[in-house]
Design brief:
301 residues; alpha/beta; Rossmann fold; 2 domains; four-stranded parallel β-sheet; 10 strands; globular
Length: 301
């Protein structure tokens, strides 16, 4: 094996088949950074019953710990994950990198779209997501209730929706969009009035980043978020978004407020659109990443 790079970054790797790699680096005086954006130690069957047996395997846990302790710097994008790893491995250097959003891509897509998509006269609530069965019943009940009180409101899913509402008159779905630029263009073209981000509030989810907040802010969409981590750490309730308890009544009430008040939607969207570039621009994330990696270069200590 020959390594000839300015910096080595290992990303999320913890397979026992690569357990030799941290020792290989150490024996040759090679320093590396380790990037991790999920708390694999807390990934149990309640999170994913298919992946849990793998990540709970003692050999996988041991390999993950070895990569962490051998790294010159561990890079995370969640303050909660930083603190968790620091408690687990006090000797490790764990650095928080601000999770960014590529605002230049959003601006390019918006310029390309121009006025091609105009308001349709209906109010649209968007939710791009992967399969999230933990909030299925909450979504089903909220969508059903909103159909009765606001028949002109349409829920638009990207990627997944609960089977129970697949044929509902107030629901649409667009299959998962692999290409990120196409995804941005699609959402911009739909002119969502509100974006939602329900999370059940599991221990595992609390270590994730607030990606929905960053994207909704970049889209200029007013967001409604479950009042759980990570959103409670980043969203200013009533200013840059609405934080909502995970009850059907609370979600219906929050969406009803948004639907009835164009002024509220506009105010929240504007505040989030100002906050996201100020605090979560990808340029700043890249600068941080570059600085941390520069500190562990050159490779040979």
């Amino acid at each position: 094996m020959e390594v000839n790079r300015e910096a080595i970054v290992v990303s999320r790797l913890c397979d026992p088949g690569f357990g030799w790699l941290p020792r290989y680096f150490k024996d040759r005086g090679l320093r590396y950074g380790y990037f991790i954006d999920d708390n694999f130690w807390e990934l149990d069957a309640s999170v994913d019953r298919h992946l849990a047996p793998y990540f709970n395997n003692p050999a996988v846990v041991e390999t993950l710990d070895e990569f962490i302790t051998g790294a010159g710097v561990v890079l995370v994008m969640s303050k909660r994950l930083r603190d968790y790893i620091s408690r687990r491995h006090p000797s490790a250097r764990v650095e928080y990198v601000v999770p960014g959003v590529d605002l230049d891509r959003f601006a390019t897509a918006a310029a390309r779209l121009g006025s091609a998509a105009s308001p349709s006269g209906e109010l649209r609530i968007g939710y791009p997501t992967t399969r999230r069965t933990s909030v299925t019943q909450l979504l089903v009940q909220v969508i059903t209730a909103m159909r009765e009180t606001h028949p002109d409101v349409v829920f638009e899913f990207v990627g997944w929706l609960p089977d129970e509402v697949a044929t509902a008159s107030n629901v649409r779905v667009r299959p998962h969009i692999d290409n990120y630029d196409e995804y941005i263009s699609h959402v911009l073209s739909r002119r969502w009035d509100v974006g939602i981000a329900p999370l059940i509030g599991s221990h595992f989810e609390g270590f994730k980043t607030q990606v929905k907040y960053r994207e909704y802010g970049a889209f200029g969409v007013a967001g409604v978020y479950s009042a759980v981590a990570p959103y409670i750490d980043y969203v200013d309730d009533g200013v840059t978004g609405l934080l909502v308890d995970n009850t059907v009544d609370a979600w219906i009430s929050a969406l009803d407020r948004m639907v009835r008040s164009a002024a509220l939607r506009a105010s929240i969207a504007a505040s989030a659109r100002e906050d996201v570039p100020r605090h979560y621009h990808q340029r700043d994330s890249a600068d941080q990443m570059r600085r941390f990696l520069h500190e562990i270069a050159p490779l040979h200590a």
